[in-house]
Write a structure and sequence with these properties.
By secondary structure, chain A is mostly helical. Chain A has ten helices and no strands. Chain A has one domain: MetI-like (MetI-like fold), CATH 1.10.3720.10. In chain A, helix 1 crosses helix 9. In chain B, helix 8 links the parallel strand 7 and strand 8. The mean pLDDT of chain B is about 90. The chains are: A mainly alpha, B alpha/beta.
Chain lengths: ~220, ~375
């Protein structure tokens, strides 16, 4: 099959592309988590800010990826290459992460929080010991979506200079090389599915025990 | 002791205050029940005591200390708080839930463990079985009990309870109420209890505070409130069966007459004489085993004659007409109606201790009315 031939002939190139793809996605995810999870938690304290921030996140999310990457490039501090790609990917991650953290924390049973307050637990303790653990399923679901989404959109960064798996599709289209297109698309999809499945397994593990166990 | 001085709560945007210039005192060791229709301000009042809500005006003192002087969290760590929906942490075990306040106080691990087991036993649950369970594995009644145990973990002198038994079925609620009364007899905590059920208020309260539209309408002991309602609102709130409700404040032992005599099968002919000798108007007939098998009264003899056969027949009809000393007058009345009799024999365990009649109950009810 031509596709297997193609892979065999270009293993080195594909490995380079795959590594770049992964490192971009990894960096974007780490920065996004460090940035957006605290933001999500902070806006649970203030409804006005919550509305503003969520609006911004939604708006950014609606911008087509190619346009956002292109716009990033025009900003003097960023230019072509990884920095722009990272900023764009982190901006896209804002919506799923901030929204899920916010909804997860807000969605915790209010009577549990009332009881905890009434016992003398302070607001930070309540956040750390009750709200975050109970919000974990929803937060993790947001994280999972973010990972899959970032893996896909990272491919588009190829148009602003990233040398990742998206390049196979882009060049394949330019040269009309069907093997390149198919192999590129396939590999990105496989990576996204694999990551999603792994995260799915982890998701099952991290749900707090008490929420998993039903009436015996 | 809890004291409220001219406490008011007004919510912005509402013209009528939720709580209007409330002043009252809950004495140490007493259970005060706040009762009233929905929206009357009873829960709001309760939640101002532990600063879950801040009053708009007035002062609240616990043991003569203004509650505003303490940090709210520290204040609440020393007040037991039980709510209707219980609010157990679903991701923590029963033991961990009960251990929350002790942990906040910094108790060492083994002290906490001992206390958790102690409390579980106190509320009638097996520590070994229950300690490691999660709330989702428990029944409603168990969860409610654990909610109460959790509130008592550091043995706070004051407890605030907001419809604590509301979320379970009536049978379980009855048991929970009885158990709590039993505990309170030993613990003598100062308790503020909110309910919308006047029957629960009468059962649980040393004193009842009746609220309407943010105002305290009447505050007094159940007897007072039942026998002298302050106005029509209170009367209506209590219900038409006000006097019968009063009967649930007393036990048979408060009213039973203690003079009686007993007669075995062979002494049926001498029953009248025996009664005369003992100065009693009731004679219990004993069976072969010495157990009560009915009774006859002076009235019966006057009406139907003293021949043994009629005495035996009348007495036999009363075989079921016995009650324990500890049951409520109201339940005794119910039994009288059920058996269509005006007399009941009174027992303490398996020992005969007296007799009670419908007339006795009526006299007692009448006495309270007129006072």
């Amino acid at each position: 099959m031509e596709y297997i031939n193609y892979i065999q002939r270009n293993t080195g190139l594909m490995t380079e592309y795959a590594q770049n793809h992964f490192s971009l996605v990894l960096a974007a995810i780490i920065i996004s988590l460090l940035l957006w999870v605290p933001v999500g938690v902070l806006i649970t304290r203030n409804e006005k800010w919550a509305a503003r921030v969520l609006n911004i996140a939604n708006t950014i999310f609606c911008i087509p990826s190619l346009s956002l990457f292109a716009v990033m490039v025009t900003i003097p501090a960023l230019g072509l290459g990884r920095r722009s790609a990272l900023v764009a990917l982190v901006l896209y991650a804002m919506m799923p992460l901030v929204r899920n953290v916010y909804q997860g924390v807000k969605g915790v049973d209010k009577t549990v929080i009332e009881a905890a307050r009434g016992m003398g637990m302070g607001p930070f303790r309540i956040l750390w010991e009750i709200q975050l653990p109970l919000a974990t399923p929803v937060i993790f679901a947001g994280f999972r979506i973010t990972v899959v989404m970032t893996t896909g959109i990272a491919a588009i960064a190829t148009y602003i200079g990233e040398r990742n798996l998206g390049r196979l599709i882009a060049e394949g289209l330019t040269r009309f090389n069907v093997e390149m297109i198919v192999v590129g698309a396939l590999f990105i999809a496989i990576i996204a599915i694999a990551l999603d499945s792994i995260l799915g397994l982890i998701e099952k593990r991290i749900v707090p025990r008490g929420l998993r166990i039903g009436r015996g | 002791m809890i004291e409220l001085r001219a406490v008011s709560k007004v919510y912005s945007g509402q013209s009528a205050p939720a709580v209007d210039n409330l002043s009252m005192t809950v004495e140490k060791g007493e259970t005060c029940v706040l009762v009233g229709p929905s929206g009357c301000g009873k829960s709001t009042t309760l939640r101002m005591i532990n600063r879950m809500i801040e009053p708009t005006a007035g002062t609240i003192l616990i043991d003569n200390q203004d509650i505003r002087q303490s940090d709210p969290d520290k204040l609440r760590m020393n007040i037991g708080y039980v709510i209707q929906q219980i609010g157990l942490l679903p991701h923590r075990t029963v033991a961990e839930n009960i251990a929350i306040v002790p942990r906040l106080h910094g108790w060492p691990k083994d002290r906490i463990k001992t206390r958790v087991d102690e409390l579980l036993k106190l509320i009638g649950l097996d520590p070994e079985e229950t300690r490691h369970k999660f709330p989702s594995q428990l029944s409603g009644g168990q969860m409610q009990r654990i909610g109460v145990a959790r509130a008592m973990a550091v043995d706070p002198p004051v407890m605030l309870m907001d419809e604590p038994f509301g979320a379970v079925d009536p049978i379980a609620r009855n048991h929970l109420q009885d158990e709590f009364l039993r505990l309170q007899k030993e613990m003598k905590k100062t308790i503020c209890f909110v309910t919308h059920d006047i029957n629960e208020a009468i059962k649980m309260g040393d004193r009842i505070a009746i609220f309407s539209a943010g105002r305290l309408v009447q505050y007094g002991m159940p007897q007072e409130i039942l026998s002298s309602p302050a106005n029509d609102f209170v009367s209506d709130f209590i219900g038409y069966d006000r006097v019968v409700k009063m009967l649930s404040l007393f036990n048979v032992e408060n009213v039973a007459r203690r003079t009686f005599c007993t007669a075995g099968k062979s002494e049926l002919t001498n029953v009248a004489v025996k009664m005369g000798d003992a100065g009693a108007d009731t004679c219990f007939l004993l069976d072969e085993g010495g157990r009560p098998a009915g009774f006859t009264t002076l009235e019966d003899i006057e009406k139907h004659g003293a021949d043994p056969e009629s005495i035996r027949q009348i007495a036999a009809g009363r075989k079921e007409a016995f009650v324990q000393e500890t049951i409520l007058l109201r339940d005794a009345l119910s039994l009288m109606l059920e058996l269509d009799t005006e007399q009941l024999g009174v027992m303490d365990g398996s020992r005969i201790t007296g007799v009670i009649s419908l007339r006795d109950i009526r006299k007692h009810a009448g006495k309270k009315e007129g006072e």
